[in-house]
Amino acid sequence: MTTSTHLVYLIALPLVSAALLLILGRLADKWGHLLATLVSASTFAFAASEFFAMRSRSGAARATTQKLFDWISVGTFKVDAALLLDQLSICFVLLITGVGTLIHIYSIAYMSHDRDRRRFFAYLNLFIAAMLLLVLGNSYLNLYVGWEGVGLASYLLIGFWNQKPAYATAAKKAFVANRVGDVGLSLAIMIAFAQFGTVSFAGVAAGAPHASSAALAAMGAMLLLAAAGKSAQFPLQSWLGDAMAGPTPVSALIHAATMVTAGVYLITRSNFIFDASSTARLLVVIVGTITLLFGAIIGTAKDDIKKALAASTMSQIGYMILATGLGPIGYAFAIMHLLTHGFFKAGMFLGAGSVMHGMNDEVNMRRFGGLNRFLPITAITFGFGYLAIIGVPPFAGFYSKDKIIETAFNAGGTKGYILGICALLGAGLTAFYMTRLIVMTFWGTPRWSRDEQHPHESPALMWVPMAILAVGSVASGFLFTSGNSMVHWLAPVVNPSGAEGGAELMKPIVVSLLALGVVVIGVAYAIFKYRTVPVEAPEKVTVFTRIARRDLMQDAFNEAVLMRPGQKLTTGLVWADYSFVDGLVRAVGFTLGTSSQAVRKIQNGYARTYALVMLVGVLALVATIWMVTL
């Protein structure tokens, strides 16, 4: 492992920039967005130089570490504030800074009329700094600091327009849901300390083979809970759709490319825990499978373009979580899909922002239609992302998602067939709801009011980042799969033993043909069903459609199963505290008060009373002596 003295600049640059813009306030309004964008671009350039330097080294020397200072030193328990840049973290660093810079550039134009644009860019820099700390920390405790920083920054960005009560509520909902997941990460850190005596990744990895199965399963379950909160996975997925209240660049940065992928990073980084616990790995597979179907079903019913994309994100992250539970080879495919998804989903979110920009902030797809004639660049770049996410060759999703489906089938036995069929069903649903989105937005006849809306193409500062992401939607998949490059690149981190994947039960060509088959069915059915779209959603729909429109009742479920019982539990605890804990304190006070009232009656100032008390005392003393000497 190589020692470095400058990794800290990756975090320090955006962090100092954010602090400077917030401290200077209105003084930085005219140039704050330029500084933030320049800092983000510089951070990406620095990350790229680190990547090429890493490629020039070999073996264990590729990983780089930097100790900042002694953080905790109590007896034998020591935690350094230290950074680790290895083959896994560099993937995230490049994604965060690269896509983040494109979103900064896009936001210069998108937020140009906002009075608080400087504050928005400060929050963007703060988010990037926190996200970089999350993926660069060399221990669970260092990761936790970045984890909480990301939660704070996302709260500030989602609720950026907090003058609107609904937006402020959405930010709070996201914050609370993430705090539930954070309890899991806190407990996982405590279990690591109790079981291994350390919270560093290296220390826990060294001790995992010798730990009890119960401790490993418990730690894995808590890490999964943390991942579910941050990555909007079942059962903590309800916040993601509401989080679309923030500015659209926030959705592209947080909900497509970075924050929601933090859970995938956490599980992949903790591969030594999940590889050692079949119970924890099974839980990961179950959560990922449920969520990929859950999000896809919700996406079929949404008319809000951003919420449809949010449901899609939930589903695609579900694919990644599923892959992380499929053994050593699955981690590489999860990260590969994460990176390709960062390109095409960020591009589509920016495309949605471009549509809103040209349609006076309208988000209802039923009031779009025929926009390809008015927003040609947006339509083309969005189309590239669409073809990538549904898995059409040679676009990126064809390579990355098909690998996950193939690995699911190869899990073996009944389990493999169940997982493979669920993954295929998710691919078909993805093709359906994404084609529905494309048809309702860019095809067909216009359904907007020509008096109120005048669709037009976005400026170059917006469409150039979209075009770059569109290129990534085409090229990235082949790049990552060529010669199993991603598998070999990540092997020292996620598969150091060199273990092979399961037996090849289904040929890749068969999986690809099956996936393309369900995609064709999904596309054809969506075109048939939405070739003509009414402006208003039909009132008479099936019960299933109504449930899907309400996000499969996830808010109602959370209220009935979590919130109401939680309120009753809290009420009961308050009553118990008042009646028993406080009651005991009050009883002590009452006893002392009552006894003091009785005693004070003999303290009345009369000499005869004191003499009588003394006489009684002497008699009692004499009686005691007499009884003892008998």
Word description of this protein:
- It is built from 24 helices and three strands.
- The chain is globular.
- The chain has helices at about 10-25, 30-55, 85-110, 115-135, 140-160, 165-195, 200-205, 215-230, 240, 250-255, 260-270, 270-275, 280-300, 305-325, 330-360, 375-390, 395-410, 415-440, 460-480, 485-495, 510-530, 545-550, 555-600, 605-630; strands spanning about 1-5, 65-75, 75-85.
- Helix content is about 70%, strand content about 5%.
- The model has no long low-confidence stretch (mean pLDDT about 90).
- It has a three-stranded mixed sheet.
- The longest helix is centred in the C-terminal third of the chain and has 46 residues, at about 555-600.
- Among the domains are: about 285-550, no CATH class; about 560-630, no CATH class.
- By secondary structure, it is mostly helical.
- Helix 4 runs antiparallel to helix 5 (about 140-160) and helix 15 (about 330-360) runs antiparallel to helix 19.
